[in-house]
Structures are given as C-alpha cells and as structure tokens.
Amino acid sequence: MTHHTQQIATIGLLGLCALAGLASGCRGDRSDKPPRQFFPDMDDSPKWKPQTRTDFYSDHRSMRPTVDGTVPFGRSTSPDEPGRADALLDDVPFFTGKASDAKDAPAVPMIPARVKVTAELLKRGEERFNIYCSACHGYDGKGAGTVGVMYSVPPANLMDAKFTDRSTLNGADGHIFDVIMNGWNNNMPGYRHSIRPMDAWAIVAHLRAMQKKEAGTIDQVPEAERARLMQSKPAAAPAPAAKTEGAK
User: Fold this and answer.
1) Is residue 20 part of a domain?
2) Is 154 within a domain?
C-alpha cells in the first residue's frame, strides 16, 4: 500500500468515526446541555404575538394601526369584500360618516344617498346587528345584552332620545356609523376589521327602524293593518280571583 493510499484510508476512517459520533448523538439520549445553535439570531429572534404588550413602541401595542393612506384591496369575489371602486375611498361621507375629510368635519345627519335603504338592506342590517351588537346592546338595542349586563359601565340604550335626534352629534347617522367602525371613548371597540362600510350603514338603517318601532303607537298603523294586528293580539290573562274570608 502506498503512502498516498494510506492517507486516503486514514481520512476515510476518520470520517466514518465522525459520522458514527454524530449518529450516536441522535439516538434520543437525554441531556441537560442546551442545544447547539448554529444560527442564534434566528433561534432567538424577537417577535410580537397578537394582543400583547411591547415597550418598543410608545403606545405599547404590538399590533400596529393601519398607516394613514393605506388602501385595502383583496382578490376575493365575495360580496363582503371591497372592489376596486370601494378601495379608493373616494366617497368621504360614505366611508367616514363625515361631511368632508377635514379633521373637525361634522358628522352627516342622514345616511348617504349612495346607500339605498331597501328591505334587503334592512334585513342585512338586522343580521349584522344581531352578530356584532346584540351581545352588548341586546337584540332590542336597550343595552341589556348577555355580555353588556356584566359590564361596570352599561352599554348605551340606543332607544334613548339622544340617539334619535339627528340634529345632535349622538343622533347623527354619520356619528353612529363612525362609532360602529372606530369605537367610542374606550368603552366600545371599533369593528372596522369585521364590518364593511355598507354593512355599517345597514346597521344604522336597522337601528332607525327599531327606534321607530319603539316610539310608534297603534294609531300610526294603517286602519286595515290595525284591525288585523288587534285580532292577532293575545288575550289578556284573567285577573286572579279575590280571596274570600276563610279560604285557604
């Protein structure tokens, strides 16, 4: 065997010994030693989990708010997803509930003309209200929802007169839209992440229908319908009989 051949054999033997050593370390034997980190910056890279606190930002929020001017756009064909026209946000009252894009612009008093209040829209508004609003405000909007009754600060009674007067801030359709989308005074969260602008206006329309129903009287119902309603009205329960002397 030549010297060169011996060198090759020695190197091969050392290589086999090294592989055997590595293989023996992968047999599942327990060890208190920390694992070898070949890329420690990747193993221990900083990260933020949703809904957690961080000292990196001044507001201590790990989830960052959307940058002003961001244009949302998706490729979904779902009717709940915005299309190209909606992504441009060119209709300020429709997308913000305000009269203009000025910082101190007033809320629009009425639902924008772009929103056609139809039976289908009202049905959609009722559905969205029941999903997102009823847990706190109740299905009747009076603030006694299953979750709302447990709060230290009760949710608003949306049937209150201050929410029906469109000449005031609280009663303006645009203000209610803005509260739905962006929240209010740390007591109510915003739902812009889940509710599209058209659906928010549908909720406003449904709320107005509920308010009218709450404030309505039987005299406002057309006579033909009034007779039908009175016929279907359940009979009043009989009054309990008065107890006589000596009765048990």
Assistant:
1) no
2) yes
